[in-house]
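Researcher: I've been going back and forth with a colleague about how SDR family NAD(P)-dependent oxidoreductase might be arranged in three dimensions. Neither of us has a model we trust, so I'd like an independent prediction. The organism is Metabacillus endolithicus, in case that matters for your notes. Sequence below.
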Amino acid sequence: MYLPSFNLSNKTAVITGAGRGIGRALAIGFAEAGANLVLLSRTEKELNEVETIISDMGRTALPIVTDVTKPSDISEAIEKIKQENIKIDILVNNAGMNIRTEALNVTEDEWDKIMNTNIKSAFFMSREIGALMKEHGEGGRIINISSVAGKIALRTGVAYGATKAAMIQMTKILAFEWGKYHINVNSIGPWYFETPLTKELLSNEEYVKDILAVTPLKRIGQLPELVGPAVFLASDASSYISGQTLFVDGGMTINGF
Ligand SMILES: NC(=O)c1ccc[n+]([C@@H]2O[C@H](COP(=O)([O-])OP(=O)(O)OC[C@H]3O[C@@H](n4cnc5c(N)ncnc54)[C@H](OP(=O)(O)O)[C@@H]3O)[C@@H](O)[C@H]2O)c1
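Model: Here is an independent structure prediction for SDR family NAD(P)-dependent oxidoreductase. You can compare it with whatever you and your colleague have in mind.
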């Protein structure tokens, strides 16, 4: 028996930003792989829609309306998880946003908003869930959704790129500190995928032409193409991998553009 299991049965995953886009796709994909879910975001209606899809699949999903930029909201979500006696095996830090502004025009408010949403929230979610994983003693998986923008200078703006690079480094340091608790921490760096975040940009033909010019596979990614890598990093199939960033990028980063 050499083939390790990709199955997530009897595992529970917390996913931030699970109401739409990548987070929604990962939540449904994890449920397909057998997991139960805890779904976080600020929009109750979207969380309830995902919950319905997952319960129709025979899995459970607990939606918790949470603004992950607020430590008090994170604490309340953790309390709810404890009250429900849920053992968390997997955390996906996916919630994120961007305001595309050239560096000379970035305001303090924009900077703080992007930092708080993309990196501060991911650290404090990891700290809280990491503590639960240490306490239950069965280890766990943390997956941080970074970006190609964390490796390469892009037009996505300085604050966004800085948060995504920070996420890659945070992944390594948490992997370094928490390996002894059997917690594997990895990151995924997507290139362009069509979601509500990128829909407008990807409706611009010139913009897409520029993207495809530096993408060896010559196409934009499809959401299911992120689900496989995420299930891999959440499952026993990746048990000896920690601190890594897996770029899901159609080959974009191979030339170090
Ligand atoms: N799409 C791409 O091509 C691409 C490429 C590289 C990296 N990424 C990264 O992938 C992640 C998901 O992106 P996406 O394209 O799926 O974006 P999206 O469609 O805009 O979805 C973002 C999700 O994050 C949630 N969120 C944002 N701020 C939040 C907050 N303060 N508290 C709780 N939840 C919050 C949103 O829910 P609410 O607004 O309802 O709270 C939503 O569910 C982001 O980290 C993004 O940087 C995306």
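Researcher: What would you highlight for our discussion?
Model: I'd start with this: The two ends are 41 Å apart (CA to CA). After that, consider the following. The pocket of NAP is lined by residues 16-17, 19-23, 41-43, 46, 66-69, 94-97, 117, 145, 147, 190, 192-193, 195-198 (CB under 6 Å).
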